[in-house]
Predict the structure.
Amino acid sequence: MSEQAEPTGFSGPTGGTGPTGATGPTGLTVRSGRVRTARKLLRRAGRREAGLFLAEGPQAVREALAGGHVREVFARPDAQPELRSVAGQTGLPWYDVDEAVLAELTDTVHPQGVVAVCRVLDVPVGEAVRPGVRLAAVLADVRDPGNAGTVLRCADAAGAEAVVLAGHSVDLYNPKTVRASVGSLFHLPVAAGASPAATVDEVRRAGLTVLAADGAGELDLFEAEASGLLAAPTAWLFGNEAWGLPEEVAALADHRVRIPIFGGAESLNLATAAAVCLYTSARVQRAPRP
């Protein structure tokens, strides 16, 4: 297929693994329409318009393939033979490209060799945090994409069953968010865009207690554990990296809980605080009952 005849959208082949069967370079260049179209997904406006996003790196692409979220893959000819095999079994388009093309599709200095175009997967809050969920994380106005992705990864590792990016939080599909989640984005329901107040309403409707992680909380984490509070289905509410939870958002919680600081540190960063809170809840909830 010549570059001139190449389609510019995402309606690529539905059978096989690309125009050449993924056995060698496809001839795509940085000027190819398919590459230019995929590059638009580095921008939020492009992602919204297409309903698609980019996932970079072997682990992210592996999990996206396992979940059935991938539309097409761009990779170095010598990269990830096991992923190539999976894509081939499902009939997904796979395009062998050079480093210049990969650099166009990533925002990193050293691309990881494989990039997938994926379908967006966020769901409404009420679908993510539903009755029966025992542990969830709600991020309110979290702006740093690396932190958001790391909290998502921590929530997944701790066994949380939902994550919500509420208010003016960073775009879930920002390439840095996706990369920092290291595939966890594809493991659990994620909601985005609802206000903190609307999110808390949905969380309570599902039967979860809402705990705000707050450095000035009336309970410390150990007191909350000793009281039995953490044994209940819980949604942890985490605030912005720089200024934490606004008073009006913290006031939505059933309790405010602080992590005790025993040394001279002023505070913990967001991702560390989230890991401590989520793992403490997970340990309490999973402890054998007397």
